Amino acid sequence: MDAFKKLACDFLRCLIVQLHCFFDCFVDFIFGLYYKGKEKRVPPVKNDLLLDSAIVLAEKIRTKKVTSEEIVRTCIERCKEVNGYINAIVEECYDIAIKEAKEVDKLIESGADPDVFKKKPFLGVPFTTKESNEAKGLPHTMGLVSRKGHLSEEDATVIGYLKQAGAILLGKTNIPELNMWAESRNNVYGQTNNPYNTTRNVGGSSGGDAAIVASCGVPFSIGSDIGGSIRMPAFFNGVFGHKPSEGLTPLKGVGLRAEDFPNSMAEAGPICKKAEDLEPFLKILVGKNISKLKLGTPVDLKSLNIFYQEGSGDLRASKVDPSMRAALSKAVRHFEQLTGKATKVRLPGSEYSYRLWRYWMTQENVNFKHDVTNRKGTTSASIEVCKLLKGSSALTLAAILKLVDEDLFPKEKSEWAKNTTAEMKQFLLDKLGDNGVLFYPSYPSTANYHFSTYLRPYNFGYWCLFNVLRLPTCQVPLGLDEQGLPVGVQVVSSPFNDHLCFAVAAELEKTFGGWVPPS
Protein backbone atom coordinates (compact mmCIF):
# COMPACT_ATOMS: atom_id res chain seq x y z
CA MET A 1 0.00 0.00 0.00
CA ASP A 2 2.83 2.40 0.89
CA ALA A 3 4.58 1.59 -2.38
CA PHE A 4 1.37 2.36 -4.28
CA LYS A 5 0.98 5.70 -2.49
CA LYS A 6 4.57 6.63 -3.31
CA LEU A 7 4.07 5.67 -6.95
CA ALA A 8 0.87 7.74 -7.12
CA CYS A 9 2.57 10.74 -5.51
CA ASP A 10 5.51 10.50 -7.90
CA PHE A 11 3.16 10.30 -10.88
CA LEU A 12 1.15 13.30 -9.66
CA ARG A 13 4.34 15.28 -9.07
CA CYS A 14 5.60 14.46 -12.57
CA LEU A 15 2.25 15.45 -14.05
CA ILE A 16 2.29 18.81 -12.25
CA VAL A 17 5.84 19.51 -13.43
CA GLN A 18 4.93 18.69 -17.03
CA LEU A 19 1.77 20.82 -16.93
CA HIS A 20 3.81 23.69 -15.47
CA CYS A 21 6.38 23.33 -18.26
CA PHE A 22 3.58 23.46 -20.82
CA PHE A 23 2.15 26.57 -19.15
CA ASP A 24 5.57 28.29 -19.18
CA CYS A 25 6.06 27.50 -22.87
CA PHE A 26 2.60 28.90 -23.62
CA VAL A 27 3.32 32.10 -21.66
CA ASP A 28 6.63 32.62 -23.48
CA PHE A 29 4.95 31.97 -26.84
CA ILE A 30 2.21 34.54 -26.24
CA PHE A 31 4.56 37.19 -24.85
CA GLY A 32 7.03 36.43 -27.63
CA LEU A 33 4.36 37.15 -30.24
CA TYR A 34 3.52 40.46 -28.59
CA TYR A 35 7.14 41.62 -28.29
CA LYS A 36 8.37 40.25 -31.62
CA GLY A 37 10.27 42.90 -33.55
CA LYS A 38 10.44 45.25 -30.55
CA GLU A 39 13.76 43.94 -29.23
CA LYS A 40 16.63 46.40 -28.89
CA ARG A 41 19.95 46.38 -27.11
CA VAL A 42 22.18 49.20 -25.97
CA PRO A 43 24.78 50.50 -28.46
CA PRO A 44 28.42 49.35 -28.31
CA VAL A 45 30.93 51.00 -25.99
CA LYS A 46 33.14 53.55 -27.76
CA ASN A 47 35.60 54.29 -24.95
CA ASP A 48 37.58 51.43 -23.37
CA LEU A 49 37.66 53.25 -20.01
CA LEU A 50 34.07 52.14 -19.59
CA LEU A 51 35.16 48.50 -19.59
CA ASP A 52 37.49 48.90 -16.60
CA SER A 53 36.74 47.82 -13.05
CA ALA A 54 36.38 50.39 -10.30
CA ILE A 55 39.75 49.52 -8.75
CA VAL A 56 41.51 49.81 -12.13
CA LEU A 57 39.94 53.23 -12.67
CA ALA A 58 40.97 54.30 -9.16
CA GLU A 59 44.56 53.24 -9.88
CA LYS A 60 44.60 55.15 -13.18
CA ILE A 61 43.38 58.27 -11.39
CA ARG A 62 45.97 57.91 -8.61
CA THR A 63 48.82 57.46 -11.09
CA LYS A 64 47.61 60.33 -13.29
CA LYS A 65 47.09 58.11 -16.33
CA VAL A 66 43.64 59.65 -16.63
CA THR A 67 41.77 62.33 -14.73
CA SER A 68 38.70 61.79 -12.64
CA GLU A 69 36.95 64.43 -14.72
CA GLU A 70 37.61 62.48 -17.91
CA ILE A 71 36.23 59.29 -16.38
CA VAL A 72 33.18 61.03 -14.92
CA ARG A 73 32.38 62.81 -18.18
CA THR A 74 32.85 59.58 -20.12
CA CYS A 75 30.45 57.76 -17.80
CA ILE A 76 27.93 60.59 -18.01
CA GLU A 77 28.02 60.47 -21.80
CA ARG A 78 27.46 56.73 -21.71
CA CYS A 79 24.58 57.07 -19.24
CA LYS A 80 22.91 59.58 -21.52
CA GLU A 81 23.51 57.34 -24.53
CA VAL A 82 21.93 54.22 -23.04
CA ASN A 83 19.25 55.67 -20.81
CA GLY A 84 16.87 56.22 -23.71
CA TYR A 85 16.95 52.45 -24.22
CA ILE A 86 16.79 51.23 -20.63
CA ASN A 87 15.46 54.08 -18.43
CA ALA A 88 17.80 53.07 -15.59
CA ILE A 89 18.89 56.46 -14.22
CA VAL A 90 15.86 58.34 -12.96
CA GLU A 91 17.56 61.17 -11.03
CA GLU A 92 20.93 62.59 -12.07
CA CYS A 93 23.43 64.91 -10.43
CA TYR A 94 25.89 65.18 -13.32
CA ASP A 95 26.91 68.81 -12.80
CA ILE A 96 27.75 68.20 -9.15
CA ALA A 97 29.68 65.05 -10.10
CA ILE A 98 31.82 66.94 -12.62
CA LYS A 99 32.56 69.60 -10.02
CA GLU A 100 33.60 66.93 -7.49
CA ALA A 101 35.80 65.24 -10.11
CA LYS A 102 37.61 68.51 -10.77
CA GLU A 103 38.29 68.84 -7.03
CA VAL A 104 39.75 65.32 -7.01
CA ASP A 105 42.05 66.19 -9.90
CA LYS A 106 43.22 69.35 -8.14
CA LEU A 107 44.01 67.33 -5.02
CA ILE A 108 46.06 64.82 -6.99
CA GLU A 109 47.88 67.48 -8.99
CA SER A 110 48.85 69.24 -5.76
CA GLY A 111 50.66 66.10 -4.61
CA ALA A 112 48.22 64.37 -2.28
CA ASP A 113 49.61 62.52 0.72
CA PRO A 114 49.69 58.73 0.09
CA ASP A 115 47.51 58.28 3.18
CA VAL A 116 44.71 60.01 1.29
CA PHE A 117 44.57 57.12 -1.17
CA LYS A 118 44.51 54.56 1.66
CA LYS A 119 41.53 56.31 3.22
CA LYS A 120 39.92 56.93 -0.16
CA PRO A 121 40.51 53.77 -2.24
CA PHE A 122 37.86 54.77 -4.80
CA LEU A 123 38.91 58.40 -5.11
CA GLY A 124 37.34 59.95 -8.21
CA VAL A 125 35.45 56.83 -9.36
CA PRO A 126 31.75 57.33 -10.28
CA PHE A 127 28.89 55.20 -8.97
CA THR A 128 25.09 55.10 -8.78
CA THR A 129 22.63 53.85 -6.20
CA LYS A 130 18.97 52.85 -6.27
CA GLU A 131 16.37 55.55 -5.71
CA SER A 132 15.33 53.96 -2.42
CA ASN A 133 18.76 54.61 -0.85
CA GLU A 134 18.90 58.12 0.58
CA ALA A 135 21.35 60.55 -1.02
CA LYS A 136 21.44 64.10 0.30
CA GLY A 137 19.59 66.59 -1.90
CA LEU A 138 18.19 63.98 -4.29
CA PRO A 139 14.60 62.67 -4.59
CA HIS A 140 13.61 59.74 -2.42
CA THR A 141 10.13 58.79 -3.63
CA MET A 142 10.45 55.01 -3.20
CA GLY A 143 8.46 54.88 -6.46
CA LEU A 144 5.36 56.23 -4.71
CA VAL A 145 3.31 58.94 -6.41
CA SER A 146 2.43 60.23 -2.92
CA ARG A 147 6.13 60.92 -2.22
CA LYS A 148 6.89 62.88 -5.40
CA GLY A 149 9.00 65.91 -4.54
CA HIS A 150 10.44 64.41 -1.35
CA LEU A 151 14.18 65.16 -1.07
CA SER A 152 16.64 63.42 1.26
CA GLU A 153 18.22 65.57 3.93
CA GLU A 154 21.19 63.24 4.45
CA ASP A 155 22.92 60.24 2.95
CA ALA A 156 22.18 56.65 3.88
CA THR A 157 25.05 55.43 6.03
CA VAL A 158 26.40 53.17 3.26
CA ILE A 159 26.20 56.00 0.72
CA GLY A 160 28.16 58.17 3.12
CA TYR A 161 30.76 55.42 3.50
CA LEU A 162 31.32 55.20 -0.25
CA LYS A 163 31.52 58.97 -0.63
CA GLN A 164 34.07 59.05 2.20
CA ALA A 165 36.03 56.46 0.23
CA GLY A 166 36.26 59.04 -2.58
CA ALA A 167 33.59 57.73 -4.95
CA ILE A 168 31.43 60.23 -6.85
CA LEU A 169 27.66 59.79 -7.14
CA LEU A 170 26.28 60.28 -10.67
CA GLY A 171 22.63 59.64 -9.95
CA LYS A 172 19.91 57.35 -8.66
CA THR A 173 18.34 54.41 -10.46
CA ASN A 174 14.90 52.89 -10.88
CA ILE A 175 13.15 50.51 -8.51
CA PRO A 176 9.76 48.84 -8.05
CA GLU A 177 7.27 50.57 -5.74
CA LEU A 178 8.63 50.35 -2.16
CA ASN A 179 11.20 47.84 -3.50
CA MET A 180 8.57 45.10 -3.31
CA TRP A 181 8.45 43.44 -6.71
CA ALA A 182 10.57 41.47 -9.14
CA GLU A 183 10.47 44.17 -11.85
CA SER A 184 11.72 47.76 -11.65
CA ARG A 185 8.57 49.62 -12.60
CA ASN A 186 6.55 52.30 -10.81
CA ASN A 187 4.13 55.13 -11.53
CA VAL A 188 6.71 57.84 -10.88
CA TYR A 189 9.53 56.83 -13.22
CA GLY A 190 8.10 54.12 -15.44
CA GLN A 191 9.77 50.86 -16.44
CA THR A 192 13.44 49.90 -16.74
CA ASN A 193 14.46 47.66 -19.66
CA ASN A 194 17.14 45.01 -19.96
CA PRO A 195 20.22 46.23 -21.89
CA TYR A 196 20.63 42.83 -23.57
CA ASN A 197 17.04 42.84 -24.83
CA THR A 198 14.72 45.71 -24.01
CA THR A 199 11.65 43.46 -24.04
CA ARG A 200 13.04 41.65 -20.99
CA ASN A 201 12.92 42.23 -17.25
CA VAL A 202 15.83 43.77 -15.29
CA GLY A 203 14.58 42.41 -11.96
CA GLY A 204 13.99 44.24 -8.72
CA SER A 205 14.53 46.00 -6.60
CA SER A 206 18.04 47.11 -7.64
CA GLY A 207 17.09 46.73 -11.30
CA GLY A 208 18.21 50.17 -12.42
CA ASP A 209 21.59 49.73 -10.75
CA ALA A 210 22.31 46.39 -12.41
CA ALA A 211 21.13 47.66 -15.81
CA ILE A 212 23.34 50.77 -15.79
CA VAL A 213 26.36 48.79 -14.56
CA ALA A 214 25.86 46.15 -17.28
CA SER A 215 25.53 48.95 -19.84
CA CYS A 216 28.89 50.45 -18.71
CA GLY A 217 27.35 53.66 -17.42
CA VAL A 218 29.21 53.22 -14.13
CA PRO A 219 31.64 50.56 -12.89
CA PHE A 220 29.67 49.81 -9.71
CA SER A 221 26.54 50.55 -7.67
CA ILE A 222 25.21 50.14 -4.14
CA GLY A 223 22.15 47.91 -4.00
CA SER A 224 20.17 46.39 -1.15
CA ASP A 225 18.80 42.88 -0.75
CA ILE A 226 15.93 41.64 1.43
CA GLY A 227 14.63 39.00 -0.97
CA GLY A 228 17.14 38.81 -3.81
CA SER A 229 17.07 42.53 -4.64
CA ILE A 230 20.79 42.58 -5.48
CA ARG A 231 21.23 39.09 -6.90
CA MET A 232 18.10 38.98 -9.05
CA PRO A 233 18.97 42.12 -11.07
CA ALA A 234 22.63 41.12 -11.15
CA PHE A 235 21.59 37.82 -12.73
CA PHE A 236 19.15 39.27 -15.26
CA ASN A 237 21.76 41.87 -16.31
CA GLY A 238 24.79 39.59 -16.32
CA VAL A 239 26.88 41.28 -13.60
CA PHE A 240 28.17 40.40 -10.12
CA GLY A 241 26.01 41.04 -7.07
CA HIS A 242 26.65 40.10 -3.47
CA LYS A 243 24.35 39.82 -0.46
CA PRO A 244 26.68 39.98 2.56
CA SER A 245 26.51 37.98 5.77
CA GLU A 246 23.78 39.02 8.17
CA GLY A 247 24.11 42.18 10.25
CA LEU A 248 27.18 43.51 8.45
CA THR A 249 25.97 46.62 6.64
CA PRO A 250 24.17 49.55 8.29
CA LEU A 251 20.59 49.99 7.06
CA LYS A 252 19.86 53.56 8.11
CA GLY A 253 18.67 55.42 5.02
CA VAL A 254 18.11 52.21 3.07
CA GLY A 255 14.45 52.28 2.07
CA LEU A 256 12.39 54.07 4.69
CA ARG A 257 14.58 53.00 7.62
CA ALA A 258 15.43 55.92 9.89
CA GLU A 259 17.77 53.79 11.99
CA ASP A 260 19.81 50.59 11.76
CA PHE A 261 18.08 47.24 12.12
CA PRO A 262 20.82 44.65 12.65
CA ASN A 263 18.27 41.83 13.08
CA SER A 264 17.03 41.88 9.50
CA MET A 265 17.14 39.75 6.37
CA ALA A 266 18.19 42.91 4.51
CA GLU A 267 21.74 43.93 3.64
CA ALA A 268 23.27 46.57 1.42
CA GLY A 269 25.82 45.23 -1.04
CA PRO A 270 27.87 45.66 -4.22
CA ILE A 271 26.82 45.36 -7.84
CA CYS A 272 29.73 45.44 -10.31
CA LYS A 273 31.01 44.18 -13.68
CA LYS A 274 34.24 42.68 -12.36
CA ALA A 275 34.82 40.21 -9.53
CA GLU A 276 37.90 42.11 -8.34
CA ASP A 277 35.65 44.97 -7.16
CA LEU A 278 33.59 42.81 -4.78
CA GLU A 279 35.98 42.58 -1.85
CA PRO A 280 37.27 46.19 -1.73
CA PHE A 281 33.71 47.44 -2.19
CA LEU A 282 32.39 45.32 0.69
CA LYS A 283 35.23 46.55 2.91
CA ILE A 284 33.80 50.05 2.55
CA LEU A 285 30.17 49.11 3.10
CA VAL A 286 30.63 47.15 6.35
CA GLY A 287 32.41 49.97 8.20
CA LYS A 288 33.48 48.89 11.70
CA ASN A 289 32.15 45.38 11.10
CA ILE A 290 35.20 44.64 8.95
CA SER A 291 36.67 42.74 11.92
CA LYS A 292 33.93 40.09 11.59
CA LEU A 293 35.13 39.13 8.12
CA LYS A 294 38.21 37.41 6.74
CA LEU A 295 38.61 39.63 3.70
CA GLY A 296 42.12 39.41 2.29
CA THR A 297 42.63 35.87 3.63
CA PRO A 298 44.13 33.65 0.89
CA VAL A 299 41.79 30.89 -0.31
CA ASP A 300 43.11 27.53 -1.47
CA LEU A 301 40.50 26.73 -4.09
CA LYS A 302 41.69 23.13 -4.39
CA SER A 303 40.86 22.44 -0.74
CA LEU A 304 37.29 23.78 -0.87
CA ASN A 305 34.38 21.46 -0.18
CA ILE A 306 31.90 21.81 -3.05
CA PHE A 307 28.16 21.19 -2.79
CA TYR A 308 25.38 21.83 -5.25
CA GLN A 309 21.60 21.62 -5.59
CA GLU A 310 19.87 21.45 -8.97
CA GLY A 311 16.46 22.91 -8.07
CA SER A 312 14.36 24.13 -5.17
CA GLY A 313 11.78 21.35 -5.37
CA ASP A 314 8.89 23.84 -5.20
CA LEU A 315 6.16 22.54 -7.52
CA ARG A 316 4.76 26.06 -7.84
CA ALA A 317 8.04 27.30 -9.32
CA SER A 318 9.05 26.73 -12.94
CA LYS A 319 11.37 23.87 -13.81
CA VAL A 320 15.01 24.91 -14.24
CA ASP A 321 15.51 25.15 -17.99
CA PRO A 322 18.39 23.64 -20.03
CA SER A 323 20.44 26.86 -20.26
CA MET A 324 20.37 27.33 -16.49
CA ARG A 325 21.10 23.66 -15.82
CA ALA A 326 24.08 23.92 -18.16
CA ALA A 327 25.36 27.02 -16.35
CA LEU A 328 25.15 25.29 -12.97
CA SER A 329 26.71 22.14 -14.38
CA LYS A 330 29.75 23.86 -15.88
CA ALA A 331 30.48 25.69 -12.63
CA VAL A 332 30.15 22.49 -10.61
CA ARG A 333 32.18 20.40 -13.05
CA HIS A 334 35.00 22.95 -13.07
CA PHE A 335 35.31 22.90 -9.30
CA GLU A 336 34.89 19.15 -9.22
CA GLN A 337 37.96 18.88 -11.44
CA LEU A 338 39.76 21.45 -9.30
CA THR A 339 38.97 19.92 -5.90
CA GLY A 340 38.38 16.28 -6.81
CA LYS A 341 34.83 16.15 -5.49
CA ALA A 342 31.43 17.86 -5.71
CA THR A 343 28.51 16.60 -3.63
CA LYS A 344 24.88 16.90 -4.64
CA VAL A 345 22.63 17.90 -1.73
CA ARG A 346 18.97 18.57 -1.05
CA LEU A 347 18.26 21.29 1.52
CA PRO A 348 15.37 20.09 3.70
CA GLY A 349 12.66 22.70 3.26
CA SER A 350 13.94 24.45 0.13
CA GLU A 351 10.61 23.63 -1.51
CA TYR A 352 9.05 26.10 0.95
CA SER A 353 11.42 28.97 0.09
CA TYR A 354 8.71 31.50 -0.73
CA ARG A 355 6.49 30.54 2.19
CA LEU A 356 9.38 30.84 4.63
CA TRP A 357 10.38 34.25 3.28
CA ARG A 358 6.76 35.35 3.49
CA TYR A 359 6.74 34.43 7.19
CA TRP A 360 10.05 36.07 8.00
CA MET A 361 8.95 39.29 6.27
CA THR A 362 6.29 39.56 8.98
CA GLN A 363 9.14 39.69 11.52
CA GLU A 364 10.77 42.67 9.80
CA ASN A 365 10.22 46.22 11.05
CA VAL A 366 8.02 46.99 8.02
CA ASN A 367 4.34 47.98 7.73
CA PHE A 368 3.55 47.85 4.03
CA LYS A 369 -0.04 49.06 4.41
CA HIS A 370 1.22 52.14 6.24
CA ASP A 371 4.31 52.73 4.09
CA VAL A 372 2.40 52.55 0.80
CA THR A 373 0.35 55.60 1.86
CA ASN A 374 3.57 57.52 2.55
CA ARG A 375 2.81 56.86 6.22
CA LYS A 376 -0.25 59.08 6.17
CA GLY A 377 -2.68 56.36 7.15
CA THR A 378 -3.26 52.77 6.09
CA THR A 379 -4.90 51.13 3.13
CA SER A 380 -6.17 47.66 2.28
CA ALA A 381 -6.63 45.28 -0.62
CA SER A 382 -10.34 46.01 -0.90
CA ILE A 383 -9.81 49.77 -0.98
CA GLU A 384 -7.08 49.61 -3.62
CA VAL A 385 -8.83 47.01 -5.78
CA CYS A 386 -11.91 49.25 -5.87
CA LYS A 387 -9.72 52.21 -6.82
CA LEU A 388 -8.03 50.11 -9.50
CA LEU A 389 -11.38 49.16 -11.03
CA LYS A 390 -12.38 52.84 -11.04
CA GLY A 391 -9.02 53.81 -12.58
CA SER A 392 -8.12 56.00 -9.60
CA SER A 393 -5.44 53.96 -7.78
CA ALA A 394 -1.99 55.56 -7.65
CA LEU A 395 -0.41 52.16 -6.92
CA THR A 396 1.02 49.62 -9.33
CA LEU A 397 -0.57 46.20 -9.73
CA ALA A 398 2.41 44.69 -7.90
CA ALA A 399 1.74 46.79 -4.80
CA ILE A 400 -1.97 45.92 -4.90
CA LEU A 401 -1.16 42.22 -5.14
CA LYS A 402 1.06 42.61 -2.08
CA LEU A 403 -1.95 44.04 -0.21
CA VAL A 404 -4.11 41.15 -1.44
CA ASP A 405 -1.51 38.71 -0.12
CA GLU A 406 -1.46 40.39 3.30
CA ASP A 407 -5.24 40.72 3.63
CA LEU A 408 -6.69 37.62 2.02
CA PHE A 409 -4.18 34.78 2.22
CA PRO A 410 -3.68 32.78 5.43
CA LYS A 411 -0.58 33.53 7.49
CA GLU A 412 2.24 31.01 7.77
CA LYS A 413 2.45 29.16 11.07
CA SER A 414 5.22 30.60 13.22
CA GLU A 415 6.40 27.36 14.85
CA TRP A 416 6.54 25.54 11.51
CA ALA A 417 8.45 28.37 9.82
CA LYS A 418 10.97 28.75 12.62
CA ASN A 419 11.61 25.01 12.92
CA THR A 420 11.91 24.48 9.16
CA THR A 421 14.30 27.41 8.81
CA ALA A 422 16.45 26.26 11.72
CA GLU A 423 16.62 22.68 10.41
CA MET A 424 17.57 23.78 6.90
CA LYS A 425 20.19 26.27 8.10
CA GLN A 426 21.80 23.75 10.44
CA PHE A 427 21.87 21.14 7.68
CA LEU A 428 23.69 23.53 5.36
CA LEU A 429 26.08 24.87 8.00
CA ASP A 430 27.07 21.32 8.93
CA LYS A 431 27.92 20.70 5.27
CA LEU A 432 29.73 23.97 4.56
CA GLY A 433 31.74 24.46 7.73
CA ASP A 434 34.35 27.17 7.27
CA ASN A 435 35.67 25.79 3.99
CA GLY A 436 32.72 24.96 1.81
CA VAL A 437 30.48 26.60 -0.80
CA LEU A 438 27.12 25.71 -2.27
CA PHE A 439 26.29 26.24 -5.94
CA TYR A 440 22.58 26.97 -6.38
CA PRO A 441 20.57 27.92 -9.48
CA SER A 442 20.05 31.64 -9.90
CA TYR A 443 16.59 31.23 -11.38
CA PRO A 444 14.66 28.72 -13.50
CA SER A 445 15.32 30.69 -16.72
CA THR A 446 17.09 33.71 -18.15
CA ALA A 447 15.47 37.16 -18.01
CA ASN A 448 11.78 36.80 -18.83
CA TYR A 449 9.50 39.16 -20.74
CA HIS A 450 8.14 42.28 -19.06
CA PHE A 451 5.01 41.55 -16.98
CA SER A 452 5.32 37.76 -17.33
CA THR A 453 6.58 37.62 -13.73
CA TYR A 454 2.96 38.03 -12.64
CA LEU A 455 2.40 34.52 -13.99
CA ARG A 456 5.53 33.08 -12.28
CA PRO A 457 5.58 34.61 -8.79
CA TYR A 458 7.04 31.59 -7.03
CA ASN A 459 10.25 31.55 -9.07
CA PHE A 460 11.30 34.31 -6.70
CA GLY A 461 12.01 31.59 -4.13
CA TYR A 462 15.38 30.89 -5.71
CA TRP A 463 16.68 34.17 -4.31
CA CYS A 464 14.73 34.79 -1.12
CA LEU A 465 15.78 31.42 0.33
CA PHE A 466 19.19 32.81 1.26
CA ASN A 467 17.70 35.88 2.89
CA VAL A 468 15.72 33.48 5.06
CA LEU A 469 18.93 31.61 5.92
CA ARG A 470 20.85 34.91 6.22
CA LEU A 471 23.91 33.50 4.48
CA PRO A 472 26.39 35.36 2.27
CA THR A 473 25.45 34.75 -1.35
CA CYS A 474 27.14 35.96 -4.52
CA GLN A 475 25.50 36.07 -7.95
CA VAL A 476 28.14 35.17 -10.54
CA PRO A 477 27.65 35.75 -14.30
CA LEU A 478 28.64 32.89 -16.61
CA GLY A 479 28.26 34.43 -20.05
CA LEU A 480 25.22 34.40 -22.34
CA ASP A 481 22.79 31.78 -23.61
CA GLU A 482 21.80 31.16 -27.24
CA GLN A 483 19.38 34.10 -27.12
CA GLY A 484 22.14 36.45 -25.97
CA LEU A 485 20.75 36.69 -22.43
CA PRO A 486 22.90 36.34 -19.29
CA VAL A 487 23.18 33.08 -17.37
CA GLY A 488 24.82 32.56 -14.00
CA VAL A 489 24.88 30.80 -10.67
CA GLN A 490 24.60 31.66 -6.97
CA VAL A 491 27.55 30.87 -4.68
CA VAL A 492 26.74 30.48 -0.98
CA SER A 493 29.03 30.17 2.04
CA SER A 494 28.64 30.02 5.81
CA PRO A 495 28.33 33.24 7.87
CA PHE A 496 31.21 35.73 7.60
CA ASN A 497 32.97 33.61 4.98
CA ASP A 498 32.11 36.06 2.21
CA HIS A 499 35.72 35.84 1.03
CA LEU A 500 35.09 32.26 -0.11
CA CYS A 501 32.26 33.50 -2.35
CA PHE A 502 34.59 36.13 -3.82
CA ALA A 503 37.39 33.65 -4.47
CA VAL A 504 35.00 31.29 -6.27
CA ALA A 505 33.51 34.20 -8.23
CA ALA A 506 36.97 35.28 -9.39
CA GLU A 507 37.83 31.73 -10.46
CA LEU A 508 34.60 31.36 -12.42
CA GLU A 509 35.17 34.73 -14.06
CA LYS A 510 38.70 33.75 -15.07
CA THR A 511 37.51 30.42 -16.46
CA PHE A 512 34.23 31.35 -18.17
CA GLY A 513 34.57 35.07 -18.86
CA GLY A 514 32.09 36.57 -16.38
CA TRP A 515 30.27 39.69 -17.55
CA VAL A 516 29.84 40.07 -21.32
CA PRO A 517 29.04 43.53 -22.77
CA PRO A 518 25.40 43.62 -23.90
CA SER A 519 26.32 44.87 -27.37
What does this structure look like?
With 519 residues, the chain is of the alpha/beta class. Helix content is 40%, strand content 12%. It has 17 helices and 13 strands. The chain has an eleven-stranded mixed β-sheet, sandwiched between helices. It has a two-stranded antiparallel ribbon with strand order 4-5. The radius of gyration is 22 Å and the shape is globular. The model has no long low-confidence stretch (mean pLDDT 96).
- Counting DSSP E segments of at least 2 residues, the number of strands comes to 13
* Biggest sheet strand line-up: 1-3-2-6-8-7-12-13-11-9-10
Instruction: Give the helix/strand class.
Output: alpha/beta
- What is the number of helices? 17
Question: What separation lies between the terminal Cα atoms?
Answer: 59 Å
Largest sheet: 11 strands, mixed
**Mean pLDDT, rounded to whole units?**
96
Low-confidence runs (pLDDT<50, min 5 residues)? none
What is the general shape?
Answer: globular
What's the helix-strand series?
A: HHHEHHEHEEEHEHEEHEHEHHHHHEHEEH
Radius of gyration computed on alpha carbons = 22 Å
Portion in beta strands: 5-15%
> Into which percent range does the helicity of residues fall?
40-55%
> Which oligomerization state do the chains in this entry correspond to?
single chain
Q: Short summary of the structure?
A:
It contains 17 helices and 13 strands. The protein has 519 residues and is of the alpha/beta class.
Descriptive labels:
519 residues, two-stranded antiparallel ribbon, alpha/beta, 11-stranded mixed beta sheet, 40% helix, 13 strands, 12% strand
